[in-house]
Amino acid sequence: MKNTLRIIFLTSFLLAALCSPAHGQKKMKNTDVAQALQGYFTLATEGSVSPDSEGFIRRWMLLDPISKPNSTNQVFTQKYTRDAILTEYFPGQFTVMPKDGDRVKVTMEYQPPVDVSTSYSTYDPSKAPKMVNANLYWHALDSDHFFVKLFRFAAGLDRDRYGAIFWSVTVINCDEDIENVRLSIGANCGGMWWLDGQELLLLAGDRHMGVDSYVSKRITLKKGRNVLRGATINGIGMSEFCARFIDDDGKPVTNFTVSCN
Fold this sequence. Notes:
- There is one protein chain.
- Strands 1, 2, 3, 4, 7, 9, 11, 12, 15 and 17 form a ten-stranded antiparallel β-sheet that branches. Strands 8, 10, 13, 14 and 16 form a five-stranded antiparallel β-sheet that branches. The chain has a two-stranded antiparallel ribbon with strand order 5-6.
- It is an alpha+beta fold and 261 residues long.
- The protein has a single domain, classed as Jelly Rolls (Sandwich), CATH 2.60.120.
- It contains four helices and 17 strands.
């Protein structure tokens, strides 16, 4: 009887361990984050920075990815993308201005470990739980490139890199109103973007990332703080985006600064 109970206990323990590879982990030390993301991201400094010479925004608050398993990118219709992103995973999802290291508790779909060399799961899904509780963390980062490599962000931090939703937030600081500009997004996956809570773009479908692939209606960047928020959803393959503001001639707007708070 004792041996039977011991076997049951060990089996349960091992199954739990297999089903929660990174979901309960603590936030990595910033020095470890910097090392893990080397070549793609640098820890953001205090204060503000300017966009690069082409207007691309490189300073972001990025949340550890929320698992949303999809075995194909063909599902990203407008309705599916909108429904998946507008699902509330954590309080203040559409309003919070996070700080580096802030923790978010979510209940999300379980996703078995993936063999990165093949992009396929190595675990029997019939033995996996449907949902898991997870501690996710916000990271203040500067992208080393004009585009934000979300796949490399997730892989470096040992988080779900396929079938995931990535939340991105930054602050656009303006000394005066900047009128008649458009938010311009390039991405190779689905997503939604807001400025100060106003929805500007819905990206559906699957594509190669191209600069200025999606452009919003004309807007005004108001004097002071403007909060730019995005959610990107991917299935299989890489995931990345680039963001900037352009004028009516398609030229980059650069007369603002960017900060994490």
